[in-house]
Amino acid sequence: MITDHFPLLGLRVRTPRLELRPPSLDDLAALADIAAEGVHDPAEMPFIFPWTDLSPARRALSVVQHNLGVYARWTPEDWQLPLVVVHEGAVVGVQDMLAKDFAVTRRVASGSWLGLKHQGRGIGTEMRAAMLHLAFEGLGAAEAASGVIEGNVRSERVSRRLGYRADGVGVYAVRGKAARELRFLLTREDWEAHRLDVPVTLSGLEPCLPFFGLGELPE
């Protein structure tokens, strides 16, 4: 089985209504379809890299290639974990978690997006909470960072609700204009104080730990 060689593909994070998992090829096809349908109002740009400005077909292709690429480039010292979010049996978006030198820093960062038709139902908050459970409870993280382009009120509300504190501002060129990124940081203590009253279960994590830098990879 593929999980004998790359156990990350067997990782599952579940809440009562969501499952987060590394995407299968069928999951990637569904995720690409959602991206093609739209992720946000075209008049706005919530991402530092404006990948959603691509045509629907190119946007879908970029989703497939990006997700395949991050797993192909994975090392314990520099990794990115994209998890498709499944609600009521359908892929609705993606939740990323990434880190460099995690074994030393114990800090993760995150990113996410949902298809337009799946927004406004609390899924974004719940999937971030599930990811944070994996980071803090599953991997022993000390901190989780996040950033949001100023004006992306929904994403900022998710961070604040889950206990993140303001942690500075960055400035980037987005669509040829300066855009401020509001940065947030969540400590383990603040995570404990603001955890959602939603149970989260992890499965398939133990054999994955060396891939996160928490142990030795098999020789």
From TrEMBL:
Q: Which InterPro entries does this entry report, sorted A to Z?
A: Acyl_CoA_acyltransferase (IPR016181), GNAT_dom (IPR000182), Ribosomal_N-acetyltransferase (IPR051908)
Span of domain N-acetyltransferase: 18-187
According to UniProt, the name of this protein is: GNAT family N-acetyltransferase
Instruction: Please spell out the taxonomic lineage of the organism that makes this protein.
Output: Bacteria, Bacillati, Actinomycetota, Actinomycetes, Streptosporangiales
